[in-house]
Amino acid sequence: MLNSIMKTKLFAWVDQRTGADAIIKSQLTEYAVPKNLNYMWNFGSLALLVLVLQILTGIFLAMYYKPSAAFTSGGYTVAFDSVERIMRDVNFGWLIRYMHAVGASAFFFVVYMHIGRGLYYGSYKGPRELLWIIGVVILLIMQGAAFFGYLLPWGQMSFWGATVITNLFGALPVIGEYLQQVLRGGFAVGDPTLNRFFSLHYLFPLLLAAIVGGHVHALHVVHSNNPEGIDVHNAEEKINFHPYYTVKDAFGVGVFLLFYCYIVFFNPQMGGFFIEVDNYVPANNLQTPPHIAPVWYLTPWYTILRSFPDKLLGVVAMGASLGILFLLPFLDRSKVRSSRYRPIFRQMVVLFFVTVIILGYCGHSAPTPTLKLVGQIATAYYFAFFILLLFLPKFEKTKPLPDHI
Amino acid sequence: MSEQVDQSKRNMLFGAAGLLGGVAALAAAVPFVGSMLPAADTLAASKTEFDVGTVESGQLVVIQWQGKPVFVVNRTKELLAQIDGHDEMLKDPESREIEAVSAAWMTDENRKYRAIKPEYLVVVASCTHLGCIPMYKATKGRKDWGDSVPEDWPGGWHCPCHGSLYDISARVINDSPAPHNLHLMPYKYTGETSVVIG
Ligand code: FES
Q1: Are residues B126 and B62 in the same domain?
Q2: Is the ipTM here above 0.90?
Q3: How many alpha carbons lie under 13 Å from residue A396 in its C-beta half-sphere?
Q4: pTM for the whole structure
Q5: How far is residue A164's CA from residue A114's CA, in Å, rounded to a whole number?
Q6: Pairing with A389, which of A16, A42, B85, B108 sits 20 to 30 Å away (CA)?
Q7: Substitution candidate for ligand 1 out of B91, B128, B158, B159 with most atoms within 8 A of CB
Q8: How far apart, in whole angstroms, are the C-alpha atoms of residue B101 and residue B176?
Q9: CB-based contact (8 Å) between B34 and chain A?
Q10: Which has the closest alpha carbon to A377: A296, A307, A320, A321?
Q11: Can you give the residue range of the structural domain that contains B128?
Q12: Topology at the third CATH level for domain A32-292
């Protein structure tokens, strides 16, 4: 079908002025991809889909959302009421808001799967170091965007989450207090904070879209890794992205939408995992809810923060736990990429996934001494994983790599 | 392998998938476009109650209905007398040209008043040219208004934007850029002087 479009006169006219023919060929119809990618490789295109969904639904929500902490005659605030108005009065407002809120969780789920695949199959290794680093930048911007967005409904969780996180920055020496005031626009989270978070929540996805462009471009320069983790040179080992992987990605989109729509329509709050119950209580700066925890996708890092008795140390550890991802391509110097041929790494990385889930569980639950200990052990392994990678090549006996896929 | 591809079958599958995808995309557009239509609370605010008895005789007040301005005038005997005698100056003296300028309750006798009770005129205050709010210049002639109005001014409204003129029944005067008389909106009396607009 694309072929016949590309033979039309109109296309020739556009091509002369844009070079569209060469772009389509080099990026789609003649862009060679290893033929053995498994379904774990679907999550990249899914992430792109969710990003588009988030931007689209966000634009429509912004037509009705009002970022103001001013009180209304009903005793609530303008922001809180505007969200409730979206839920009750705006046509399909409930649907668009649930799509957006569920989309945030879906985005992180998809991206965490994508990152996990990169870890397991060694996609971060040369020549894809920069591709990985751009990906980590994307993760950080996503977390920022999610954090800013979470303040907007101006509920109890919004308010106290923002209070806690902005206080984190206050823990930094020298610049801490200054930084905190820059973020808050005042001495506590309030109306100015809400306004600037809305502005930034609108800005970050634009950054994201641009950097995702860079991520895809970098991918198309170094090409996809594959489950075997070996370089593919033979033409018989590759197939063109279009139509083969566009069709496979489209199938993945269908499966994804099935789950996404089920959650949006039947279980949008996911028992308080996707939209926390406390956030239906309007923000009250004089009363903290009894149990406060971030949304599930931020809880692993929250546990790392809580695992240290010293405030500054906790903040630094949390920063380091994300920052160390940048260094991963340089810490792991084994020549073999895929876990399939690295027996010890395979166990380590699976344990790492389990650890992150445990960290997430601990961060989501109310703190108890046992959970605290579990969290500390998990935190220790989280960092140990990266440090051990440094020494792993010295004693790991890798399996022989196949010649071709 | 490529020799054995059944192109027509493949095209049929592409077409079917594309068609269904297009239907799905259209369906997905429904909530988004729908969300931009007036929300339920906006629709609920579509009626306005007003007590026309609060308007002093000879005076005009501007009230809001669905966010639009509405003129309510308490027309004295003198003002009502100004309605007659200049039909040849009007584009549509009988208010028949379009539906928006007439109403079901209009009879041949009260047509010229354009009001259920002649003394209270209730009309949409947007100039039918491009929507400005005309200025109330009720008295006859140039005595009060200077040369902003014509010499044979019957009294009524003068639009500041592009100079449209309306008489005291809000009927547009010849040579104005505005095409029609000021629009009427549905309203009814629920008491002696209480009116529900919308
Ligand atoms: S808007 Fe009144 S004359 Fe143009």
Answers
A1: yes
A2: no
A3: 23
A4: 0.87
A5: 29
A6: A42
A7: B159
A8: 17
A9: yes
A10: A307
A11: 44-197
A12: Cytochrome Bc1 Complex; Chain C (1.20.810)
What residue spans define the domains of chain A?
32-292, 293-395
- What is the atom index within ligand 1 of the atom nearest the CA of B162? 3
CA distance A78 to A298: 27
Nearest to B91 by CA among B184, B174, B183: B174
Amino acid identity at B137: K
Q: Report the alpha-carbon distance of residue A367 to residue A358 in Å, rounded.
A: 13
Contact in structure between B127 and B136 (CB atoms under 8 Å): no
* Residue given tokens 């200077």 in the structure block: B146
Known active-site residue B86? no
Which H/E stretch holds residue A208?
helix A191-222
* pLDDT tens-digit map of B88-111: 999 999 999 999 999 999 988 889
Sheet containing strand B120-124, strands side by side: B60-65, B68-74, B120-124
Q: Are B173 and B26 in contact (CB under 8 A)?
A: no
Task: Locate B117 and state its tokens.
Answer: 């009770």
Are both B89 and B143 inside the same structural domain? yes
CATH topology of domain A293-395: Helix Hairpins (1.10.287)
Structure tokens at A307: 């695992």
pLDDT in tens, B130-167: 999 999 999 999 999 998 899 999 999 999 999 999 99
Q: Residue A205 corresponds to which amino acid?
A: P
